[in-house]
Write a structure and sequence with these properties.
Elements (H helix, E strand, L loop, with lengths): L3 H16 L6 E4 L4 E3 L3 E7 L2 E6 L4 E6 L3 H18 L5 E3 L3 E4 L5 E7 L2 E7 L5 E7 L5 H14 L5 E5 L2 E4 L4 E5 L3 E6 L2 E7 L3 H16 L1
Antiparallel strand pairs: 1-2, 3-4, 3-7, 4-5, 6-7, 8-9, 8-12, 9-10, 11-12, 13-14, 14-15
Keywords: Membrane, Transmembrane, Transmembrane helix
Amino acid sequence: MVTKNTANNANNANNALNILPEAANTAVDNDEKYLSFALVLAITIMGNLVKLIGTDGFVLYTYTLQDTATARAVFNELARRLKNFNRQEEVYTTDYLTFRMKYIYGVTLFEHDGKSILSLFDKKGYPVLSESGEPGSLDDMYLDIQARLHGGYASKKFLHLHEHCLLSAHVTPSVEKTQRGILIKAGRNLVSFIHADDESRKTDIFKSVVNVIKS
């Protein structure tokens, strides 16, 4: 029996195929732009927008769809094609984000304004991708990405700088004390902040992070 939801899903999938290029190795092919998946780091979805992110962290192209259901179908199809295009790579997928792991050189998790924010960094220490959610909702995702980076990318020499910060030594992190806590940076880019008002605790955290960097 074909239910209404099944029919709608099939219709959305067909719409997605009509919108996307016929060639499965092509991310965009229309009157505005031509783009191969070779240049795509990630795909994100927000509402009726599906964005293709380049390996430099900038938006390469945005598909603006008629509704969220079609956007979801387009996102799912693009994510599938990205995986198929990069069969020799690890491609990580969540409900709202899919990305190529080989371009990731760090992951952090912190809370700000009542939200959890997970950030992913490139080899220059720039935050190229992020995902936000309710406090605690991204803990499992952080631990999973951390474990994958630690386990499969030894050449990047990942440093576990603190509980919620994993960064490649190739990024050349720095650490400094501030009045409110500890800053971890890559060049001028903020990577992580550890809040600490107590001077003794602040000193302990600072020494701990420095020791990891020196190791």
